[in-house]
């Protein structure tokens, strides 16, 4: 049966999202807010309701703010200002600081209890017109042709859609059904994760990696009321004995007692490092753990999935509304995969540094790190790579592909972070002089849905904290175009006129000759 043919139990949608974890929730909410009909299919009857991810960064908070849930989340988050790394002796050998306010306008690092996040995202999805969430709906088949995709559910119902986004985790049914293989970095370790609900304040390290070759350990806050201890196991088989409550309390006794906290969960988890060969097969796209898995040492697993959702949602929006060719979707993996691989490889390097079990190797590592610390060498935060290909300006000053900055602005009626004042979408920021010189291009940008704003200390949009003045001066810019996923499309200044940047952006948004879509496969 072709996708165009329907029956009494078929439901039509613009997009089917498979999987209702944070990545699926963000994808559904973003597409729903763009005005599209979204059906979410989740195999579990309710929310997972157990903590998995423990933290997220300022870029991810920027996404949550765009969905209107930041203020709801903040009381249950812990802003983390430092990350410690100790050797076998317990001496702090490395420490990285995180700012209360980072370049994205939010704290650089938040610790969270994931069920609270999922409650907030679930509420956002259900409050979004056009988003339908079906739980207890395990997907058993995905077929596609030139017209769309047909998703079969375990109860015999089907949903037809123009596109499917599979956010169904590391064991993705959809990825396996499509026959997509994965690159495996070979970094696979069994760990035991122990989560506690605090009864009272306790002097537990908030973010510490312990590089003791006898027992590599991770200690991490899960927000104000929860804490996690993770212990590397010699083998998965050790979990049965090591997970006994009395053994867990023995392990954490230096920090916690049953008077301090309640043990709420003990689970085994094998850290994996894999990247799918293809993230798009015709009208079906993979996101989050379905597309890639990485070790947790940088706290970037969920963050990477949310970046996928942002990248994919704004491109699907343009394809669905007819302003872009389906070929635009080919830029999704081209843009995201290099970033994912870079972060994965950095996480593996950090993990190997921590988890060596050879005492001599660990001692040499500790001597090196101690010498660096005593020499006053400052440990820099991990810097993630910029986009280098995809939907970017053909001509630009340096800064193209970087994550954009965000400051507080004032339009005369409200004072708020830029994203909250201007809303979601493409943004063209310029000095007042550059904005005035755009001429007819300013109207064309607005007609194309691009928000044009003149920002300056005393401009129509006041740069309250000087964030944009410093950012523009750093790069020599007079204008910058920012994509809906917060990445810089391109920038102008000096010999590169802002009108050229505006014409480039307009051409990209209206371009009829986008790369041809990949051939649609029929399963």
Compact summary:
The protein is an alpha+beta fold. It is 30% helix and 26% strand.
Describe the structure.
- The chain is of the alpha+beta class and 523 residues long.
- The protein contains 15 helices and 28 strands.
- The strands form 5 sheets. Strands 1, 2, 8, 9, 10, 11, 19 and 20 form an 8-stranded mixed sheet that branches. Strands 6-5-14-15-16-13-17 form a 7-stranded mixed sheet. Strands 23-22-26-25-24-27-28 form a 7-stranded mixed sheet.
- Strand 1, helix 1 and strand 2 (38-42) form a beta-alpha-beta unit.
- Helix 1 packs parallel to helix 8 (301-320) and helix 13 packs parallel to helix 15 (498-510).
- The longest helix has 26 residues, at 330-355.
- The radius of gyration is 24 Å and the shape is globular.
Question: Would you report the number of β strands?
Answer: 28
Number of helical segments with 4 or more residues: 15
Low-confidence stretches: 4-8, 512-523
Distance between the termini: 12 Å
Provide the gyration radius in Å: 24 Å
Entry keywords:
single chain; 523 residues; alpha+beta; 8-stranded mixed beta sheet; 28 strands; disordered C terminus
């Amino acid at each position: 049966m072709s996708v165009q043919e329907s029956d009494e139990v078929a439901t039509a949608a613009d997009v089917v999202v498979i999987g209702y974890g944070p990545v699926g929730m963000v994808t559904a909410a973003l597409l729903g807010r763009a005005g599209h009909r979204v059906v979410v299919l989740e195999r579990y009857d309710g929310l997972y309701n157990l903590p998995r991810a423990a933290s997220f960064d300022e870029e991810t908070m920027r996404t949550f703010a765009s969905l209107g849930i930041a203020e709801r989340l903040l009381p249950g988050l812990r802003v983390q200002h430092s990350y410690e790394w100790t050797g076998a002796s317990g001496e702090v050998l490395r420490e990285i600081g995180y700012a209360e306010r980072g370049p994205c306008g939010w704290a650089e690092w938040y610790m969270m209890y994931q069920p609270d996040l999922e409650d907030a995202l679930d509420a956002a999805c259900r409050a979004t017109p056009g988003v339908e969430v079906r739980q207890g709906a395990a997907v058993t088949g995905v077929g596609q042709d030139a017209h769309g995709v047909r998703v079969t559910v375990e109860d015999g119902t089907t949903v037809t859609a123009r596109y499917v986004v599979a956010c169904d985790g590391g064991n993705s049914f959809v990825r396996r059904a499509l026959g997509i293989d994965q690159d495996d970095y070979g970094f696979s370790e069994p760990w035991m994760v122990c989560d506690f609900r605090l009864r009272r304040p306790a002097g537990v390290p908030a973010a510490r990696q312990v590089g003791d070759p006898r027992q590599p350990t991770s200690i991490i806050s899960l927000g104000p009321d929860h804490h996690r201890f993770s212990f590397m196991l010699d083998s998965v088989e050790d979990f049965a004995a090591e997970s006994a409550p009395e053994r867990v309390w023995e392990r954490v006794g230096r920090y916690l007692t049953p008077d301090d906290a309640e043990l709420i969960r003990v689970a085994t988890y094998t850290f994996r490092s894999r990247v799918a060969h293809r993230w798009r097969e015709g009208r079906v796209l993979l996101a989050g753990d379905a597309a890639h898995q990485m070790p947790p040492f940088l706290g970037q697993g969920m963050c990477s999935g949310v970046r996928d959702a942002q990248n994919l949602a704004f491109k699907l929006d343009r394809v669905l509304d007819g302003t872009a060719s389906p070929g635009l979707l080919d830029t999704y993996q081209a843009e995201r995969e290099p970033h994912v691989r870079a972060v994965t490889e950095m996480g593996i390097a950090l993990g190997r540094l921590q988890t060596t079990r050879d005492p001599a190797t660990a001692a040499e590592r500790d001597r090196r790190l101690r010498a660096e610390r005593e020499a006053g060498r400052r440990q820099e935060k991990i810097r993630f790579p910029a986009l280098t290909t995809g939907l970017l300006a053909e001509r630009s000053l340096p800064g193209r592909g970087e994550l954009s900055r965000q400051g507080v602005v004032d339009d005369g009626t409200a004072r708020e972070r830029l994203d909250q004042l201007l809303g979601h979408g493409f943004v063209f920021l310029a000095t007042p002089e550059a904005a005035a010189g755009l001429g007819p291009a300013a109207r064309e940008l607005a007609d194309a849905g691009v928000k044009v704003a003149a920002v300056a200390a005393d401009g129509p949009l006041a740069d309250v904290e000087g964030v944009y003045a410093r950012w523009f001066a750093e790069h020599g810019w007079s204008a910058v175009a920012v994509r809906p996923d917060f990445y810089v499309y391109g920038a102008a200044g000096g010999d590169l006129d802002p009108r050229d940047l505006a014409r480039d952006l307009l051409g990209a948004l209206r371009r009829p000759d986008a790369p041809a879509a990949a051939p649609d496969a029929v399963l």
